[in-house]
## 1
Amino acid sequence: MANAVRLPLEMFYAREARHPNKRYLVQPLGGGKLEELTWSEVGEQARRAANWLRGRELPAGSRIAIISKNCAHWIIADLAIWMAGHISVPLYPNLGADSVRQVLEHSESALAFIGKLDDWPAMAPGIPDGVATIALPLHPQGQFNYQWSDLQTCAPIRDNPTGSADQLATIIYTSGTTGTPKGVMQTFSNFAFAAEHGLQLFQTREDDRLISYLPLCHVAERMFVEQGSLYGGETVFFAESLDTFLADMKRARPTLMFGVPRIWTKFQMGVYSQTSAERLNRLLKLPLIGKLVARKVRKGLGLDAMRLALCGAAPVSDSLLHWYQSLGVELLEVYGMTENCGYSHLCRAGKFKSGWIGQSSLGVETRISEEGEVQVRSGATMLGYYKDPEKTAETITPDGFLRTGDKGEQDAEGYLRLTGRIKEIFKTSKGKYVAPAPIENRLAVHPLIEQVCVVGDALPQPMALCVLSEVGRRQAEGATREELEGSFRHLLDEVNKVLDKHERLLSLVMVKEVWAIENGFLTPTLKIKRNVVENAYQRHFTDWVDRRETILWHS
């Protein structure tokens, strides 16, 4: 396959030559200290590390793992692996030891870079014998075979290897809301296709600023931050931690940002913790004061320089999109999968259409199968699943379309609407099928409901399990619980009015436990694991149905 597009390493060398002294990566070191690395400094460190990797004399195309939260040296290690002719295998930084072992053994990784981690002692036992570890500059306490400083004693490589277009660049193990992670194989040309076309769509500039906080092993962050910066030349600011995130945002003042709905909701809930939703929304509607209030809120969130804000990886409610519009931030919804580099559909600026995601991205073909499944084809489609030709054949059609597993429809203008997951649709005891996602979106409009999961498999009617926001939880503990219940009953009535009879919710159940990554309810990309939620509360379902109360409180 000819080099029809510019490959990631080619782009890095071009940027390094063009502006060697331009600031590229900004890394917080704790205590208010920052490390700023230029393009030439990144290139120098990556080349030294690549020389060290070559010195291991591993077979070409060996798999090398990166286990770290986002940091500057995550990207530098990735570049070094590619320069040395190998394949990177990124792991989520919060996996348990069993999952670490599973990925490292399945990928047959020869080495593992270890960086910023919150609980290395829980992960370390998962490193198989014979897999040498290399500590990145920001690393946890522990015993490692090599330090990054050892790699930096090597002379930089003299050549500029680019890899070939059809060469495997990375294996991304999907986090998965169910089942065992699969290794998605992406080539350099897959990355190049998505990044080049994304650059045309987004019209990014070299003076743009990105903030990196979602796991870099997730395809959206990998494409938007790592590949986006290689192709667009932006400066990348890294977040230090969740505790410092707001300060990190204000320091970076990003002009471009990708966020999952949960992050954008968290911002909203943070604002609501300072002032009530009703009061803020009333102020925003006032002619002159509204603009001043909106500007103040944007500045308080570090969004005052935002030029392009993207939201994806999970369904997002219209109400959240409208709320950001009222602040002067147009959230553009994107749709994609690990299997196509996250590059599939995008809502164009100024073309918001309620209930619809947007149109196919440049170079993407979309069709709806007879079963109603969304299928897409482009140069970003994966090579397949690592060591799993059977699953690959199930997922990619003979004519090259990717089966997304999402049900959806397209309108005459090419806008896409998702109506649920083919496998997530459940059947009630009355034999009727229900798609939970659209109902969850309707419930998520309530300013005090932060997380929702609609359940109903083998039940006479569905019900919704809800986690309240911090403000909602405080109100529920006080004397305002009765008012809250009235508000939730009104919400339930409004939602049930627009649902078909078999979809109508029997009750809203307010659960006390907050669903988080740490307790296993969310994937590392903040999607709800439906099977975990259902298993956690299933023993109560029959009792809740029998009680036939519209609002239930589960402690």
## 2
Amino acid sequence: MKPRLNLFDINTDHFVGVVNKVDSYSVNISVSDDEILRKVNVNGYVIINTSNPNTLLVGRIERVVRLEYEPDESSSDGDDNVNNDVSVNALGTLKGPGAGRERPFFTRAVENLPEIGAKCFLLLGEYLTLFTGLIADETAKSKSPLSLGSYTMAADAQAILDGNAFFQRHAMVVGSTGSGKSWTVARIIEQVAGLKNSNMIVFDLHGEYEPLSAHKNITRYRIAGPADLDSPKSDVLFLPYWLLGYEDMLALILDRSDENAPNQAMAFSNAVINAKRTGLEAEKMDKELETFTIDSPVPYSLDDVVKELTLLNEARVTNKGTGKENNGPFNGKFNRFLPRLASKRTDRRHGFLFALKKEQLTINYLDYLVDKLMRASTEHSQGVKIIDFSEVPSDILPIVLSLVARLVFQVQQWSDSKTRHPIALVCDEAHLYLPNRMAADAAEARALAHFERIAKEGRKYGVSLLIISQRPSELNTTVMSQCNNVVALRLSNQSDKGAVSNLLPENLGGIQDQLPTLGVGEAIVVGDSCLLPSRIKIQEPEYQPNSGSIKFWDEWSEAEKTQNLSIAVQNLRRQSSSQE
């Protein structure tokens, strides 16, 4: 009968050497045998004895060095002139059974550093599989664990993440184009969709996640495009202008360079408050009348606002002393503002905001929209909602995305804490609308304010962010700093690697050197959701997103394939992808 493996009694064949130097989180191992040194690989794992026989230090090999010195005349042994040194970064502690536990377990706390002369052993083969199995068992505390794939170092061991920690502490998925980033996101979305009471919103900027809507618990909506305004289908959503906060609305329509901008902002504020008051009075909502503010999501007539501003712009007053008529205090102050607002309202690209039907101007539309966006999975509703923003103009995209995010956050904030249900926001191509503060324009600055608040306070109210980006160096640092889980696929750009390494603990900084060498679909996973920083081969999702790179050379080499350019031109004119 084959003896049972024991990590606390590893076979001597795995012996590496002895400790010759100990730092705050690093250990150096002296290796006397060149044959043993050949088995040692950078990024491999070792376990080192400590003064406590029931505690082992687990480390990652960072560097392997072989140095030869000039022969010493006083020495007859050539080996004395060779210094084989292995640098190890401490990752955590492996504890033996005890304290109510029947099996060994791993913790990321480094409780005991080894003494000089302590023995070091390689984690290879069956011992590595046993160790990764302990990691998986320790992580998979829920009935439905989050699994991304398998460990590259132990293909038979499933890589399990702590789903609670992954979403509680926010997460990032980063990787260059073609690295398998969309596959990874699709894999995560599929597993969330498989949960009984899931709740997730995916911001899909290019329509690439449409194939996932074939899943029984995933539905897809589209923000209304120019072709949807007259006869919208059931999957089309409008985001009425009255949902915008005061500052968001001004960022959309106010030109800050206009010398009359302060007067315009003040008068617009008063006009909106008056219009909202009129709307609430018409609905006989007395309680809301007592407490509403300019930011309250209350429908109001933009025509009434324009009418009031027009009167101010044309107002003339009579001088009581002379009896002469003079221009009013706001006369001519809106000569540029009103045409700008009219242009926004008539632009069909902005129709999802302004070209509203009667039902989108009713008080109940907010209930309808919140139910569509935030209803968790039931027998009659899907928990994962993919929202296609591909037809939203890029110049207002940050405002529109932040509108949805802010609405979700506010609903969660005002929900009863006893019945509040957590929800995750998947922010695809986040670098397009969550840039660094210095590079943000007025619209992006407003969007950042909302997302930064969610990043810092979302956990209290059950709102999680999953940030997806191919350019982490361009992402907002405040949002990034709150992401305590990082799934990093291949990154070759130096600034992007640097941005990711800034999120890693000091003793894991060397991991960034692996990023350019990762294969397609391989990722380094670091953070609160995984006990051990791991190189993982992502499992292929069942429903693959439309993100595959076009094989130019193969396409050009194949037999003639006719592209229907006339339909493309027709769709371009109509601003619709329908081929009817």
## 3
Amino acid sequence: MSAEDFVQKSYDYVICGGGTAGLVLAARLSEDPNITVGVLEAGENRLNDPLIDAPALYIQTWEKPEYDWCFKTVPQKGTANRVHGWARGKVLGGSSAINYNMFSMASRQDLDNWAELGNKGWGFNDMAPYYRKFETYNPPSKILSSKINDRYVDPLLRGTSGPIQISFCEADFQWAQEAWPETCINAGYPAPKDPRSGSAIGGFNQLTTVNPKTMQRSYSARDYYEPNAGRRNLSVLTEALVAKIEFEKGGSGNAIATGVKFFASGAEHTVKANKEVIVCGGVICSPQILELSGIGSASRLQNVGIEIVVDNPNVGENLNEHSATGISLAVKDEYPTAEVLLRNPEIAQQAMEAYITHKAGPFANAPTTTGFVSLSLADPNLADPEKHINTLISDFQKANPDADPAGRAPLLGRQILDPKEAIAQVVLLSVGADIRNSDSAAKLFMHDAPGNWITLGVCSTRSLSRGSVHIESPDPKKHPVIDPAYYSHPLDLDLAARGILHAISLTQYEPLHSKMKRDEKGGLILPPWIPAIPTTLEEAKEVASSNTVTEYHPIGTCAMLPKEKGGVVDSDCKVYGTSNVRVVDASIFPTNVQGNIISLIYAVAEKAADIIKGKTSDEVNGH
């Protein structure tokens, strides 16, 4: 529909952002035929685009403005002053359209932390029904089941009829997928249990957001929007950039939103909202929309000439991200890696034809090889871990007394010491990564080192470093300033270094050991951009500082917390100081969780839809 047709209607709910969370809300709220829903999405509708549908072509969407916002961070002191490219989906479906398809689960303590921080109803048991609601678990075929350990999955904990299809990758099985779980067991990892049990320590092939029947990405545009696109009470306008939320003039008390101003087709438009405005712009755009609308730090808004509606300096703060440190290592020539596709256009074309024609080949294969590692597993020789962790936390708190008003650090410190909780997610990728290209997401896996390479990625699970996202202009077309403050907390660098040393040690164990290419002295072979294998903690810290990028899991910039503890929204997702504005996306996460966060975004959006509908927890749980 045209922008003119869109604004001819008024809607009960106007949703700002047709991404992962926004389309969940649109589908669930429009289930009631008496409710009208309008969605504004800045990106295009690219349903049936092979670059999105093919499970392993996501890199081809990065840094292309028809798919990606192409955000950049400010230079990061903690990562050798590097700028980091942050690929975020600017397309119907948001980042669920361009992510790795990796599907993991928050731990029990991750979500119980949320409740302990003041968010009643958001603990692990509260969220379990929503994980089941959004998903359909597809067991592997007999052929695939014979190759992988899928026995850790408990089908009783999994959804059977939700929109998002999750599966083990049914594509051509790669050597790394066979070698990884056995290597982890031989390295002393425990046999993994279903992460839905509340803990995920161990190494395994994890599930993916891929429909095994169609071999296509399962994402919010495909599976929440497309089946419901014909509803007469649901309108979606793409290529529509939100400029600001409009508020009722005058009055006292909480501000009342009346509509949303946006740009489309080169003109400015305003759409009316009869009940609520729901912001689903993601971790970067949601705080930007609030600040553009006059909700944020009074001094910051005055500096850019924006009229203050609600003075809340917490907006845009608490940016928290999983860092990912990549160690690339050479493997023997007989073990194919993605370099063969990246360097040979003819082979890449054949692979593309195999996917388009037969839904087969390497482009049908999403990454699956992952592991979650506790501190005791990563560094069993650490003397007095409790004293070590608590000293790093308390020393930082003393030097920065205003840095943690919510009291997150003690919770995270306790969690880091728990042997059932992970300090790192270790991922094996069958491609080399040149971290010197950190400013360009699309070039991260482009390099000229000859031969075949893997990258052992050591990804944080519970970072304590916190940064910010803020506007510096009233122009909605201008990107906000993104500062994740990587490694500003010394504990993050300490744990990254221990994780790196542990990940390298995995190459000592079969069957991964015999796959590695070695020099004349029997040592591992590094690419030119990593000078040497680190052997001490200080050397590993140097490697972390110079070889870290984003894991694309930012959270927290509109945190769900009590306002006096740094909150932007309450436990009903409602923005403080307003009567009818909510935020629903990863920006409301008060703390990060282990692993890939897409599953939690779906669960949060499902819960938020029930909150908006007025459903109680007892109704959701069938009581």
